[in-house]
Amino acid sequence: MNMPYKTSRDYQLLKKLLDEGKEIVCFTDFPIDNRIFRDVCKARKIGEGRYSVTCRGCEYASFWENHNYKWTFEDEMRMANIEFIEPNI
């Protein structure tokens, strides 16, 4: 996808921004008819240790720190192929 702005896959930074209460614009894969499109979505912290990446009622990625996941927040974002726009303010 040709995006004329800088995106990041620095998931430690994304988690830090979410922990600060920011809602972050993201892009993720959206498969339709055996093709992959990039969908615009929003990442946010939805509770203590709970994170969600959603768009139009679809949850593309989620992570709860208190669950016994075999993966990390960074792994979850990587599996969903999340890119985000770094805030400039």
Explain what you see.
β4 and β5 (about 60-65) form a beta hairpin. The longest helix is centred in the N-terminal third of the chain and has 9 residues, at about 10-20. The chain is built from two helices and six strands, in the order βαββββαβ. It has one domain. Helices cover about 20% and strands about 45% of the residues. Strands 1-6-2-3-4-5 form a six-stranded antiparallel beta sheet, with helices on one face. The chain is globular. With about 90 residues, it is α+β, with helices and mostly antiparallel strands. The model has no long low-confidence stretch (mean pLDDT about 90).
Can you describe this structure in just a few lines?
The chain has two helices and six strands. With 89 residues, it is α+β, with helices and mostly antiparallel strands.
